[in-house]
Amino acid sequence: MEEDLMEYAPNIPDNVLELIFSFLKLQDLRNCTLVCKSWYRFFCDENNEVWRAQCLQKVPAEAFKNDLLTVVPTYKAKLRAYFHAWNPFDCSRHVYIKPNGFTLHRNPVAQSTDGSRGKIGFKHGRHAWEVRWEGPLGTVAVVGIATKDAAIQCHGYYALLGADDQSWGWNLVDNLLLHNGDAHGIYPLLNNAPKYKVGERIRVILDCDENTLSFEKNYEFLGVAFTDLPEKNFYPTVAAVYGNTEISMVYLGTPLDG
Fold it and tell me: What is the mean pLDDT of each run of 10 residues along the chain (258 residues)?
């Protein structure tokens, strides 16, 4: 019977495939991409009805009420971004993830630095995600990467992300690169580099093949920030100190060259 199905599978019309696949779970859909070239081609259309249904079923409706997800144009990309968003079980106790699933809110707690990591870490390949900071930065506002061993909360106002050998960050307040408790120079390497303005879009680019971490601001590449990263599993991470500040993160996938 399996042989008959394999023979017939490439000839099933797309409208019938949509109906069949609408009853399957994501893991089953992944397996279906391996059945034949025709089914693989079907799933390459990231805006088809199957991906649309999965996206609308799993991504919170609140995420579509503003322009947050416009940076990922397809339904499959939005679904993927949701599975990479902030982890509500891997953040400071002073942080909560808003109903849209992509935005963290730091509660107004005095003398505390608070962070959050993404749900999925990266050890291979090239990855990019966008970070948008809403609200005042305060004295510390760091964006970057960390391993699971890095702390995500501490007492006082402190550059927590970059404070140990398990995290690497860019403090948007003073344009300093931070790692292992030390400042690693001004970033970007420009004379009188402008400071970050609230609402500007930061893109973090992690290249696990070349072991580098880079940043963009408003789609302008700022250069490589860190090199010689160790072979570890890295998570998108931020650290903040200002009460009621909100930080959104949207995973973009593989960065486009150029």
Answer: 49 67 72 71 79 90 93 94 97 97 96 97 97 91 97 94 97 95 90 80 96 94 96 97 96 83
* 158, 140 Cβ separation under 8 angstroms: yes
Which residues, 6 or more positions from 221, have their beta carbon under 8 angstroms from its beta carbon?
214
Q: Are residues 238 and 151 in the same domain?
A: yes
103 plus 231 within the same structural domain: yes
DSSP class per residue in 22-85? TTS-HHHHHHHTTT-HHHHHHHH-TTSHHHHHHHHHHS-GGGGSSSGGGGS-SHHHHHHHHHTS
| Residue-range definition of the domain harbouring residue 240 | 86-253
Which one-letter DSSP state was computed for residue 7?
H
